[in-house]
Amino acid sequence: MNLYKKADMKTQKQLSLFAGGFGSGKTEVALNYAVNLHQKGFPVTVVDLDILNHYFRAGAVKKNLEKMGISMICPREELAYADLPALSPGIYGVLQGGKGYGVLDIGGDDLGAMALSRFRENIPEDGHCFFLVVNPYRPMTTDVKGIDKVKRSIESASRLKFHALVSNPNLGYGTDIETVMDGYQIVMKASEELGLPVDFLSVRRDLADHIAAELPLLPMDIYMKPPW
Amino acid sequence: MKGNDAIGEGAILAGCRHFFGYPITPQSEVTHYLAKRLPEVGGLFMQAESELASINLVFGAACAGARVMTASSGPGISLMQEELSFLAGSELPCVLVNIMRGGPGLGNIGPSQADYFQATKGGGHGDYHIIVLAPNSVQEILDIMKKAFDLSDMYRMPAMVLADGIMGQMMEPVVIDEEKSIEIPPRPWATIGRDYHEDRNEINSLFVILEEMEEVNLRLLHKYEEIRAKETLCEDYMLDDAEVALVAFGTVSRICRAVVDKAREQGIRAGLIRPITLWPFPYDVISRTAKSVQCFLVVEMNMGQMFEDIEIGAKGRAPVYHYGRLGGMVPLAKDILEELKRVSERGGTGR
Questions:
Q1: How far is B315 from chain A (nearest CA, A)?
Q2: I need a labelling partner for A36 at 20 to 30 A (CA). Which of A86, B139, B188, B247 fits?
Q3: Which residues of B256-280 are buried (b: 16+ CB within 10 A; e: fewer)?
Q4: CB contact under 8 A, B170 and A174
């Protein structure tokens, strides 16, 4: 198994930004990426920049992350369900590098990425990596054409260019090895046609041992679960 | 697929090509999804200026014979109530989706089941019913959209899919059966001009002669009786030897299913009744079950609305209890299990 271990002090960018289509798995990927960095000894702060989805968002697991030693910036508790695009001023601290390595979870589609645009001037050109998370099983990104459309709309809304794709093929709890491998091929094809490298393949931890892929794997623990 | 996406895709699979709506959390993805998808299949998506406009546009499209729908959440559905009564009175088919949120008033965007009364007992004026369907998984949402359109067409009346915010927001894998052929029944009554009909068609809910109005009311009544007899849907789980019957719909029915398993592990014979049609309501199942169980425990995300229908169905044969979480809160399996233990040890009725 080729585990994801790219992160080292030399190449790791100060900011990792995760955007993608609605429901592509940005939040799970961002959280797992942050935990991965943390376990390698990087000081990490997660920023919940999702202004659209109030039901399943990173802020809901703030306490769990803090227990692990990862700090988190999200709307104040009393605003969590306010249905308002209220962002914490603490975000600037992360962007300026005052809080170690920042992992930013951006809202879905171009609508979610608009929140990122506001910080465009505060994001260091050489100090960030912008990831497009792709789940080819989601209705709008089942082929290269759809992935390209989402890519372009997010780039236009955020005023930032993507550096790499994250391959996150899954059908939720219905995911099996075949699902991952079939979806993986679609993302690889997109990578080739769009000229963007795939940085890693994220896959549920219990499946990770059985995946034979050239890409580095990020084994994922699922943090956002329904209440049953 | 997200529940709200499944509403949109389910509608398209059902042959719906017209949507008029206005975004509201936690329903907004329905509009978002259909705005993208409907033009791809040659359909029409229109974001109206308000929920009032949306439902009136639905009325117009329904008159013209279209398979048409709208979607909103509680506050928007409240605005639509007047026209819903007009749609029922004019015997027009259409589908409404309500992704319920915390209330009353503006409330909040948390998941809720507090619009049960409004949906099943009629939020608008006059003597009428609408068909109300309550799915509990994303797959069922996808499939039930077609059911809603078919029933609505067959009986020429509005049908509503009633789900809470969690159903709309959660994601699950789905299987899409694209091979199912869609048969949209002919609409000889549609007001599409004399080029298409020999006689003049008129769609109306104004009957100034009292006897005529009563005739219409009786026709509706007979239709409702037929639906009650033929279309009631209900599912049960481990009910055969149950001593305590949990009753829940939508999201809560899934939590209750987990509670039944946990209770059985601890030696409590629990079962679950899940009404799928909330109108017509499966009173028969409740009456039958009332003879064999010690009590009912109704679990809802409201202060006791479906509870009243269980009391009607139980006819005093078994005590009925209620456990609810309110204001956008979701009941947890462990809390329901505690409540189940408590009520199975005492008699009488209460909440």
A1: 32
A2: A86
A3: bbbbbebbeeeebbbbbbbbbbbbb
A4: no
Is A227 a member of any domain? no
Cβ–Cβ < 8 Å for A18, A104: yes
Q: Is the pLDDT of residue B81 over 60?
A: yes
Inter-chain Cβ pairs, chain A and chain B, closer than 8 A: 53
The answer to whether position A3 is within a domain reads no
Residue A8 lies in a domain: no
ipTM surpassing 0.90: no
- What CATH number is given to the structural domain containing A195? 3.40.50.300
Q: Which CATH number fits domain B234-344: 3.40.50.920, 3.40.50.11690, 3.40.50.1100, 3.40.1400.10?
A: 3.40.50.920
Report the residue from B25, B254, B333 with minimal CB separation from A54: B25
Q: Could you report the per-residue pLDDT of B298-340, keeping only the tens digit for each? A: 999 999 999 999 999 999 999 999 999 999 999 999 999 999 9
pTM of the model: 0.90
Instruction: Give me chain A's average pLDDT, please.
Output: 88
B110 in A contact zone (CB under 8 Å): yes
Separation CA A201–CA B141 (nearest Å): 31
From CA A128, how far away is CA A102, in angstroms rounded?
9
CA distance B78 to B54: 13
- Is there a contact between B109 and A54 if contact means CB atoms under 8 Å apart? yes
Quick count: other Cβ atoms within 10 Å of Cβ B241?
A: 9
CATH of domain B3-230: 3.40.50.970
CA distances from B256 to B111, B112, B127, B236, B262 (A): 16, 16, 34, 11, 10
Among A24, A53, A55, A143, the strongest candidate for a mutation testing the B interface, having the largest count of B CBs within 10 A, is A55
Query: Best mutation site among B5, B101, B164, B171 for testing chain A: the one with the most A CBs within 10 Å?
Result: B171
Range of the domain at A170: 15-137+146-220
Residues of A in CB contact (< 8 Å) with B are: 22-23, 53-56, 81, 83, 137-140, 171-175, 226-228
Q: Tens digit of pLDDT for each residue in B268-307?
A: 999 999 999 999 999 999 999 999 999 999 999 999 999 9
pLDDT beyond 80 at A5: no
Q: Do B333 and A228 touch (CB under 8 A)?
A: yes
The domain segmentation of chain B, as residue ranges, is 3-230, 234-344
Distance from CA of B259 to the nearest CA of A (A): 9
Angle at B159 between CA B208 and CA B133, to 5 degrees: 140
